[in-house]
Amino acid sequence: MLLPKKVKHRKWHKPRRRNKGVATRTNTVAFGSFGLKSTTHGWVTSRQIEASRRVLTRFVRRGGKIWIRIFPDRPMTKKGSEMPMGKGKGTPDHYVATVKPGTVLFEMSGITEEQAREAMISATHKLPIKGVFVNKQ
User: Could you tell me which CATH number the domain at 40-76+93-135 has?
Assistant: First the structure.
């Protein structure tokens, strides 16, 4: 699974979920021929990214290449079970990537468009956000 090697701050503030704005970076297909672009806001965990990557790899076999354009760098904390209220913030549990509408999540090349479309739609089912298949412009 993806996670940062080193972080400057172990725990981050939890941001207000305002769902503001669209992606201004990583919003075009840059490396491959086909991409999966998000249409909604959300946090994608490293486990969900790995599950989607496995689906894409199954479709590609040995013919193509996959690029993961998002990285989970935001730490999420969790308190232990049956903990009383108070006693501070929990320990870092997992990492998530913040995704805005328009962010390209994955890219592929080396396979046909029909195969890529089917693979991307299958990978979307593993994610908590909605996505759309895009071609390189």
Answer: 3.90.1170.10
